[in-house]
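Hi L.,

You mentioned the student needs an example of a multi-chain input paired with its predicted structure. This one should do, with 225 residues in total across all chains.
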Amino acid sequence: GQQLNQSPQSMFIQEGEDVSMNCTSSSIFNTWLWYKQDPGEGPVLLIALYKAGELTSNGRLTAQFGITRKDSFLNISASIPSDVGIYFCAGPGATDSWGKLQFGAGTQVVVTP
Amino acid sequence: NAGVTQTPKFRVLKTGQSMTLLCAQDMNHEYMYWYRQDPGMGLRLIHYSVGEGTTAKGEVPDGYNVSRLKKQNFLLGLESAAPSQTSVYFCASSYRPNEKLFFGSGTQLSVL
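Structure written out for the whole complex:
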C-alpha cells in the first residue's frame, strides 16, 4: 500500500502568500521528487532531491530532503494565480524493488486574488 | 517536441467491453510506465517496462495487460472493462528508472 503521507490535502491561499507542504514516509527514501499537475494535464517535475539535507530551489519553489530521509518539504514563495494545481511528492523507497515509484495523494493548492 | 503522447483523451465504455490505450514517446527513453489516478489516492503504478519487449507488474496490475513491441510505444489493454476501472490513466517515460518521469496528458476513462 501507499507509504507516503502528504499534507495538507488542500490549501486555499491569497495571492502573495507563501505556501508550505510536506511529505512523510514510513521508510527511508533515496530520492525525493516534487511534481505539479495543472488541471487536465499530466504531472510535471518541479524539483528532484538526491541527498539527505539537500536544499534546492527552482524560482519561487524551494524543496528540502529531510535529514532522516523519511520526509521532504516544498515551499512556494509569493504565490501567484498560476501556482494553482495539485502538488505531488514521489520517490522510490530504499527497500522497494525497481519500478515502484510511490506518489503521495497530493496537495491541492487554490490561489485567490 | 511532442514528449509523451497519449490517445485517446476521453473514452466511455460499457462493462465488459475492451479497449487499448496508446502511448508514444519521442525521447528515446528505455523506461515506460502506466499509472492510474483516482481522487485522494495519488498515482498508482499499473505496469511498467524497462525496455523494448519487456513488461512487469506494478502495484495494481489486475484487469490490465500491456505490450512494448517497439521502444517508443507502450500499450495498455483492458480486456473486459469494469466500473472499478473508471479513472484517469497516465503514461510516463524516463531516461533512468524511478526518476524524472515525463508524463502524457492523460486519458479519462469511464466504464458504465
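You could point out the following to them. Residues 13 and 104 of chain B are 21 Å apart (CA to CA). Chain B is about 0% helix and 45% strand.

Best wishes,
N.
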